[in-house]
Amino acid sequence: MAAKSLKSQYPYLHNWLQDGQVEFGYAEYDHVFIRVTDAGGTVWESESHVKYRDLEEAMAAANQAIADWCDENGIELIDVW
To answer: I need a labelling partner for 49 at 20 to 30 A (CA). Which of 8, 59, 65, 80 fits?
Structure first.
């Protein structure tokens, strides 16, 4: 089976990374595993009680959060890559 690309599996996450940031992992100062930011600051954070089975599940959560945020704010991410 062929490996799926980031672009095909997580299109919102892929496009977000053109201008925004997605952080995975715990920092010593908080208990958030995923943080999605742009130039204006934090757009979404995973809840501290949520545990992800693996990075794939965390990436899917970030992708969905970005999609929801874009829908709520009337933003269409343009794919330039």
So the answer is: 8
What sign for the dihedral angle of Cα 20, 24, 28, 32?
positive
Contact predicate 67/3, CB 8 Å: no
DSSP 7-44: HHH-HHHHHHTTT-EEEES--TT---SEEEEETTEEEE
Q: What is the CA 55 to chain-centroid distance, rounded?
A: 11
End-to-end CA distance of the chain: 24
What would the pLDDT profile of 48-68 be if each residue is shown by its tens digit?
888 999 999 999 999 999 999
